[in-house]
Amino acid sequence: MAKTNIENPADSTAAGAKLCTHCNTRPARTGQSYCRDCHKNSMRQYRANRNLEFSRLNNALDQLTRNNTQTRRKFAETVGTDRWVIVTSEAGDQFHDFSGYVMGFLPCDQISILDEHGRMVNVPLKQVVADVNRWYPEDDATGAEAAAERIKLFRGSANQVSCR
Ligand SMILES: [Zn+2]
């Protein structure tokens, strides 16, 4: 029953040891098909690919949820660099004009705006202009009055973003 010939795992250089299936020159690690160097390289490659894939996904998520390059560029062209904005309502909108702060750029020319009441509203870029007169209520008393006059209807979180 007793084994007389126990394989020595450290003895990978012994004659008859398998060669690395990658470089075919150095002995493979015990129980593995690659040698130490090839294993190290393949792990490095694997991690690099994994990190690259992660940043690709992260960027895709950014583009979809808060930092769409195209929408951000259009915002810069039509509104400017100031993130304090006025949103003007159009017929059929379930909100009235309000002031707010741009929090994100969504696909399809949609802008995420934090309104005077701390709510996030998504509106089309074409309804957004720079807040040159500072409507935002914290800025001055008249702004606060104007804000109080504006009816507090909120579009809700069910905004559908659709590319037409
Ligand atoms: Zn190798």
Characteristic key phrases:
2 domains; disordered C terminus; 3 helices; disordered N terminus; alpha+beta; 164 residues; binds zinc ion; 5-stranded antiparallel β-sheet; SH3 type barrels; 30% helix
Question: Would you mind describing this structure in some detail?
Answer:
This protein has 164 residues and is of the alpha+beta class. The chain has a 5-stranded antiparallel beta sheet with strand order 4-3-2-1-5. The N and C termini lie far apart (78 Å). The structure holds zinc ion.
Summary?
With 164 residues, the protein is of the alpha+beta class.
Summed over residues and divided by their number, the pLDDT gives a mean of 81
Task: List SSEs in N-to-C order.
Answer: HHEEEEEH
The CATH class of the largest domain turns out to be: Mainly Beta
Number of helices: 3
What portion of residues belong to β-strands?
15-25%
- The shape is rod-shaped
Helix content: 25-40%
Distance N to C terminus? 78 Å
Could you tell me the CATH topology label of the largest domain: SH3 type barrels
In the sheet with the most strands, the strands line up as 4-3-2-1-5
Low-confidence stretches: 1-12, 150-162
Number of DSSP E strands: 5
Using the CA coordinates, give the radius of gyration.
30 Å
Heterogens: zinc ion
Structural class: alpha+beta
What count of domains describes the coordinates?
2
Architecture blueprint of SSEs:
Blueprint: H1 36-65, H2 69-78, E1 84-87, E2 98-106, E3 110-115, E4 120-124, E5 128-130, H3 141-149
Antiparallel strand pairs: 1-2, 1-5, 2-3, 3-4
Bound molecules: zinc ion.
